[in-house]
Amino acid sequence: MSETSDQAAADRWTRLREDGQDALEAGRYEDAERHWLQASAIAEGFPPPDARLAQSCHDLARLYSLRARYDLAAPLMRRELEVYQACFGPEHPLVCQAWGNLGMVLGERQETGEAVQCLARAAELSQKLYGPQSVQLADMIGYLAVLSQPGPAAEALMRQSLHIKQQALGSDHPTLASSIGNLANLLTKMGRWDEAVPLYEQTLALNESRLLPDDPRVADTLFNLARGYLAQQRLAEAERLMRGLLRLDEANLGARHPRIESVLETLAQIRAQQDDLDGAQELRERVVALRERRLGPAHVLLAQSLSQLSEIYARRGLYRAAEQLLGRALQMARSAFPGHPLVPVLLLNLADLAFLQEQFPEVEQRCEEAMPLAEAIGIPTFGLAARIAKRWADALDATDRPDEAERLRQRARHLLRRATEAGGPFPVEW
């Protein structure tokens, strides 16, 4: 290309980037994607290596990450890293940022091993480039905490990250929202909703101060806060937030987006706790239909939905229908994901159903199968194993075997004590 055409291409690339950013800030995601795809095509024509190509990859990856399209974001993040390394070498700030971005996206894709490696590299570079009290290092520590097993170690990392950022930016800085929200998410995984809810409220206030109402980050926080209100039995507040979020998501994401299913299920939980079993059943049947259409006949989320619907049938005395749903879910779980915590959860649900019908030998059979599965998974499911032991003990009491029942209750107490020592017990929500 001539010097004139080179400059024209560079100017057009800059305008398209700016137009894409304007569209993103206005919530026009399709326009942002169109502008940035055009900018990326122009950048591909610049003589390599050119940092503008890496920037275009970053723009598109950021957009796809906001839309939870991590399958599209990950290869773009890899390309961004490769180009920046070619341009600047291995220890440049943009290379450090690219390692962190790639690690976060891989974490969202559940590629935890490689994600941790990327984030550890980013943390090492951050400390070298910016120092031990830098916001950049705090970000990497926080992301590593997100990928860690829930417990005291992860909480310590998360609080260290938040403390560094608060010292550097002040306690009310808008960019603290993600760190505060991540700490709240960790606390919910550890069952500490009363501590998490004020943090979600703080996250929402910070996000609303700088983002549009339909920004995905605002919607995510609304969802988490509503779940917190539900856990605290603040049902009216939870329902108000969830119904508002449902309208927002249907308008922005479409009626078949995965979060619609999660919102509907949460509304069903609220209805069930209000003893509106008709409303809860209608919502859960809708979730089953949506997930079966989206995921096919054998998926962990579909099995979860079948289990949740069976709970409503059982409460209505429709034991045969509940048992059929649980049997279908269990068959699905055993064949498709045998090591998943859902398998012992479903066995416990079948045991609970048998107990309601005073079928005590079946309760024992289900618990005997479920107990070693829950214990084998590890500390995060020790609370579940304790619940199984207690239900098994109930069946033994009902058949006049108090000594055996007491031994199982002691086992349950031991499991809960071990889970508590590790920072739990951790809720298993299926």
Question: Secondary-structure map with pairings?
Answer:
Elements lengths: L2 H23 L3 H16 L6 H16 L3 H19 L4 H16 L3 H19 L4 H13 L4 H18 L7 H13 L3 H16 L7 H16 L3 H18 L5 H16 L3 H19 L4 H16 L3 H18 L5 H15 L3 H18 L4 H17 L3 H20 L9
Global structural class: mainly alpha
Poorly predicted sequence stretches spanning 5 or more consecutive residues: none
- The tally of beta strands, per DSSP, is 0
Q: Give the overall form.
A: elongated
- CATH superfamily descriptor of one domain: Tetratricopeptide repeat domain
Beta percentage is: under 5%
Distance between the termini: 60 Å
Mean pLDDT: 92
Helical content, roughly? over 70%
- CATH class of one domain reads Mainly Alpha
- The sequence of SSEs as H and E is HHHHHHHHHHHHHHHHHHHH
CATH topology of one domain: Serine Threonine Protein Phosphatase 5, Tetratricopeptide repeat
Number of helices: 20
Largest sheet: none
Assembly state of the chains shown: single chain
The CATH architecture of one domain: Alpha Horseshoe
Cα-based radius of gyration, to the nearest Å? 25 Å
Describe this structure in a few short sentences:
The chain is mostly helical and 430 residues long.
Can you tell me about this structure?
With 430 residues, the chain is mostly helical. It has a domain at 339-430: Tetratricopeptide repeat domain (Serine Threonine Protein Phosphatase 5, Tetratricopeptide repeat, Alpha Horseshoe), CATH 1.25.40. The protein is 80% helix and 0% strand. It is built from 20 helices and no strands. The protein is elongated.
